[in-house]
Amino acid sequence: MYRYDNYDHQMLTDRIAQFRNQTDRFLKGELAAPEFLPLRLQNGLYVQRLAPMLRIAIPYGMLSSRQMRKLAYIADYYDKGYGHFTTRQNIQFNWPALADVPDILAHLAEVEMHAIQTSGNCIRNTTTDQFAGCAVNEIEDSRPYCEIIRQWSTFHPEFAYLPRKFKIAVCGTQDDQAATQVHDIGLFIVRNDVGEIGFRVLVGGGLGRTPVVGKEIRPFLPKQHLLTYLDAILRVYNREGRRDNKYKARIKILVKETGVDEFRAKVEKEWLDLKDGPLTLTNAEFERCKSFFHDPAYKPMSDSNPILDKALSSDVLFASWYYQNVNAHKKPGYAIVTISLKKTGSAPGDVTTDQMNFIADLADHFSFGELRVSHEQNVILADVEKESLYTLWQKLKSQDLNADNLGLLTDIICCPGGDFCSLANAKSIPIAESIQRRFSDPVALRDIGALSLNISGCMNACGHHHVGNIGILGVDKKGAEFYQISLGGSVEDQTSLGQIVGPSFAQEEVPDVIDKIVSVYTTQRRAGERFLDTFNRIGIEPFREKVYAKAD
Amino acid sequence: MPKLIKNRKIIDDQWTLVRDLMEQAEALSSAELNLIVPLPYWLENRDALQQRSGKSAVWLDSHEIPSALGDDWNILELIALNFPVFTDGRAYSSARELRLNLGFKGEIRAIGDVLRDQLFYMSRCGFDAFTMRADQNLESALGAFEDFNDGYQVSADKPLPLFRRRA
């Protein structure tokens, strides 16, 4: 993991002192609320339905066991004993007191964490594939580049008052697990004909009110030019992005209204002034950042393991979890374990203080003291010896962390919704639970197979509903909460946006409607087809007919 | 005389900002005053302005970019950049372009909705003078320049990004 040096520490210390001063002035009435607003947002602090909400950055999803324990402490001491992992690999606390926030930030700084730029119209936390550095099909580990971007974007003086928020994702694997194509800038690590590393640059992707898949503006950007090129894109956006209408202020609208070719020309023109300047990355900097992400001390091992094989053949529950929640690792004898935070009855992505401490212990015992958070709101132990998987699973089971539903219908991505968020039109957590209860039969759930179901409580789409195979969006209909359903969304290689089935449904209808949608798939699927494949083959009409059919 | 912050000191403002051509017609016709005029006025009256005994400068609104000045930035000793509201961040890009891309050496002055909590980023972008909003306390605003000891990026005071300076 990246470790702070004196410079990083000093900047964090300075930031906390700055925010403490700003908070003091606000509480004394010396700083007006509208002027305090962007300052607190850029320190992760929202004012929510019930209390302030503090969003803490987990840069590119990497977390040490020590950091996880600190989050547990904050949950316990300053909050109500739990936290919520978000779809941008961050964690949110829903109950801190405003006056305590500078102290919380000081605690976080002790473990090299912060809440900087987790909100506001600035460059947000950079996200990536949760399997980075361990995945089998990786071109290069994305994390050193993410760290380079983190430093460049942190306190960037030119881009703190953009037209709107700005999100960057980096993907180093062939299967995109980072929803890279629906980010303001999506960077795919690629290798050119002569073997050099660079980036395929997409721009203008995003969800929210106007979902768009990002468009390529450069097929290959040599890696040393990464930051000058980002500076050029951001400058064009800062200048030309719309500021007259907040719903049209994201870069996707600028790219759409300008046209991608014209937009590219503007960026390239701006880039000419920056290219080869002092911001050009050096080999020394690449090596420095890479040095933090070298492989841990893997043991040389055979890939097959008799202890694992025996457990798989003797314990069906373990086997079920293994086949669902464990992924292949680049090193023989190791595996990537995803701890699903989608157990029925607890809000998707929520973890309690005890669970956080417990997971931190597991990381120390089984995975070199490191953890990752995924945009699907689960926690990953990325370097587990296959020999230990059965022991690990038994421990997970003891704390109710053994949900074996990764990638299945009940592994629901879900925003906090109307229970917490003041932007929401409708609740989302109870909808997730009602669907999980409907699909509680593990055999049936497995038979349905790979299916992503994403729920957002409003158009802002924090729950990524546009890119769920089944997407659910909370809408307000004359003061009542309704749910609009879309089908066919995906964040895989061929990222696609869901199509709306039709008129929205009342809350109590939703589980039945999902049931009907799934039944169309299970009756029409061909051998080997996943839900998305069947949908792509037969289209939306059969689903529409089934869902809106008059009762017999 | 009105005050402003320049190079982290509170000084008397030697310039008259002409925001409204009609209302400030009298100032505009003065031969002696040092004037900061709107960009369109500068572009139309450049020669006449330069023949005055008082000095002339230009202010750009947030939607106006430095390249609209053509090569004139070369002959100006002051360019002011307006913040219609402090959340309109376009002038940060203009300041950086002037200071870092073009190498403008004169004064870059922030005008408009200029508040204490934005001063540090402004100064890193190349602003060195600040006409603060009327309600701001200039003395205490000076503290904002000390908010951070360093920054990661290329900035007006640090031509190299941190990764080229790390010891």
Record keyword descriptors for this entry:
heterodimer; A: 552 residues; alpha+beta; Sulfite Reductase Hemoprotein, domain 2; Sulfite Reductase Hemoprotein, domain 1; 6-stranded mixed β-sheet; 5-stranded antiparallel β-sheet; 18 helices; 37% helix; globular; B: 167 residues; alpha/beta; TIM Barrel; 8-stranded mixed β-sheet; 5 helices; 8 strands
Can you offer a commentary on this structure?
The complex is a heterodimer of chains A (552) and B (167). Chain A is of the alpha+beta class and 552 residues long. Chain A folds into four domains: 105 residues, Sulfite Reductase Hemoprotein, domain 2 (Alpha-Beta Complex), CATH 3.90.480; 157 residues, Sulfite Reductase Hemoprotein, domain 1; 93 residues, Sulfite Reductase Hemoprotein, domain 2 (Alpha-Beta Complex); 136 residues, Sulfite Reductase Hemoprotein, domain 1, CATH 3.30.413.10. Helices cover 37% and strands 17% of the residues of chain A. Chain A has 18 helices and 21 strands. In chain A, strands 16, 17, 18, 19, 20 and 21 form a six-stranded mixed beta sheet that branches. In chain A, strands 1-2-5-4-13 form a five-stranded antiparallel beta sheet. A five-stranded antiparallel beta sheet of chain A has the order 3-14-15-12-11. In chain A, helix 5 links the parallel strand 6 and strand 7. In chain A, helix 1 packs antiparallel against helix 4, helix 3 packs antiparallel against helix 12 and helix 16 packs across helix 18. The termini of chain A are far apart. Chain B is α/β, with parallel strands linked by helices and 167 residues long. In chain B, strands 2-1-8-7-6-5-4-3 form an eight-stranded mixed beta sheet. Chain B is globular. Chain B starts with a strand and ends in a 26-residue tail after the last helix. The model of chain B has no long low-confidence stretch (mean pLDDT 96). The chains are: A alpha+beta (552), B alpha/beta (167). Chains A and B meet through helix 1, helix 2, helix 5 and helix 6 of A and helix 3 and helix 4 of B.
